[in-house]
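explain this:

___
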Amino acid sequence: MPIIYSHNPSAPSPTRGTPFGPSTLFGLSIALVSAIASADPSAKSAAQAQMQEVVVVSSRFPVPMNEVVGSVVSISSDNIDARMVNDLSDLLATSVGISVNRRQAYGRSYNDGIAIRGLGGKRVNILVDGVRVADAYTGYGRDVVDMDLLKRVEILKGPSSALYGSDGLAGVVSYMTKDPSDLVQDGNFFASATTLYESASQRVKAGLVTAMTGDKMDWLFQVTQHDLNETNLHDDATLQPNPMSADRTSAFSKIKYALTEDSDLTLTLDVQRSEGDWDLQSDVGTSFGRTIVNTSESLGVDKIERDRFSLSYDFEQLSAWFDRGGANLFYQSTNQRQITREQVQTFGNGIQAAPTKMTAEYSDYQFNQSIGGLSLELFKTIETSSGMRHQLVYGAEWEEIDVQRPRYKTSTDAMTAVVSSNFGGDVYPNKTFPDTKTQRSAVYVNNRIGLTDRTTLVVGLRYDHHRLKPSTDALFDNSNVAGNQLAHIKDGSLSKKFGLLFNLNDDLTAYAQYAEGFRSPDYESANLTFTNFAYRYSVAPNPNLESEQSAGYELGLRGEHNDLSWSMALYHTDYDDFIETALTGSTPQGISIYQYANLSDVTIKGAEFEITQRFPDNWNAKFAANRTYGDSAGEALTTIDPSEAILSLQWRSDDSNLGVLGVATLVASGPDGLAPNCGRGGCNALLELPGRVTYDIFVDYRFSDNLSTKIGVSNLTDVKYWDWDSVNGKTANDSNLDLFLETGREVKAMLKYAF
């Protein structure tokens, strides 16, 4: 993810402007707290008093949310269902401080990745059932998990390498898939069929899930089919997205077998297949360069195959070393293909003359990655004679990652049928980085120490060893025409985490935390290699890359009283040795050389606030807001998302048959006073965005124990807007700007039958 700076240090604050600034945010927070605190909520019921949300991601040990040291977001399956979530953007739409940016490459549009508190891309760890997901390369996003499979999503904000290793610079997103016991109990059988329609992409989804629990064996099987088209832009858009039609099928099964009363085996199989057909109209037209080229047709096909397998052994046994534990063997492979077919005419004698060449171009760009490994995790609770309590989790992990990026491209002359694989000096097939094997191993320990009834100390240590081993072949040699030396990396990193939790009284808790993160150089940043002769530049490996580092500090305060709960946090994180591209030299022939290098040091700091109130008559209200700043060398980071506030109101009838959820999202204006972007074509003003307010509403109704329905409307008032994370750095006169508009008013409807 590139870091973009404002070159005007005296520019106004990035969050100044409508609909709200920092003072308005603070005022909204205080007003809401005052209103809720002055209400007369009924005392908690016995059931409510016993309900404690438990999360795992913060310390790998199950901990009640109000005892977590640090900031954690928890998204339940009920919330996912209520909002009819279908992709990554939907999933995180109601979580402040977390965003998903949209990108375009090769004419495709996709959700690129997750940013936490202003930092994202490969600097956020994403896990499924404790195992990292495959990378997303150019043209593909991070929508790699079917949302229907999830029972819970937990997000740890801030550096997380002391718990989860490399890539935990900004935080971690942990997906947890459903178990059979989440759907059915006591030896019963469960089955349900669901169908959904979404207007924005004309998505039609159909799903079937079955589950059964027994004395020895529980099992679950789920299959989901998606048929969808390109996502519509707002009706006022002057451009239309490239037409696309796609289908995606996911099949998921989980079988749990009890070996003894205290141990069991769980086999998980997760298969996804998708294919999309694109009419890449944005490629069609005439380009004027050294020669005049007209593209009359451009068609694309995208294919993704993902297979995930894991075998877990979980056990309980009281011993001197552990009370319970688990071992996990896992393997995941992801194969992606981007095929493009173009009809091209070249006018070597000028546009007024007939074409001098007519060709059919075919490209097949692939990205294939496999991840395999095993892990061991043990838990132990120790009560000392002095009254101290230790909740220990410790373990070891090993994984091996293999990645390849072969690219095939040919040009067939329409008159002579001569096939060529040379494009302006670029010879195909090639690989822009060598086949790479990355080995990672780690040992870790995390201890929650109850010093007194009111004080808890958290200590976490993790040592990671990583090794990057590239291997060359003829395809890579076609890209490495300069014979660059490759980076072979062998390094280690010790990450630390310290936290202190103190209960000021029965209703008020304070905490402080220090946590570290790092990201080791990957196959791309270490060894990306190619030369573009047409534009006279090249990218070379860098054997001297160091790991990126982060150190985060956080102070928090939480309160609970009857049906009211609230929290606030102040955070400050320093990021060192950012890996970015830089011009590092040139060849005697005048070709510019770029490399990934350790460049910027960045500071990101801010504040977050959240309050939840349960009212009588089945009402529930939640308000959350954040304010984040970022700078490097005294210059403001323009990649930081504007301040945001989210208010949600939920009501459910006494018989639980009818429910209504309303969500209001307030986003401040983007950075203003930005210095213009200047290049060979002159200087152009950068895009500045006003603030916005959008409303979503979701209604669900249960006709009977078997039949239920949901309907939702997003962007109810049809606001035209861009998300800042998707357009930062673009100029105000960018001709393709409307292609990044968000959709207007969108309707979703779902019908579910359980039997």
Q: What stands out?
A: DSSP finds eight helices and 45 strands in the chain.
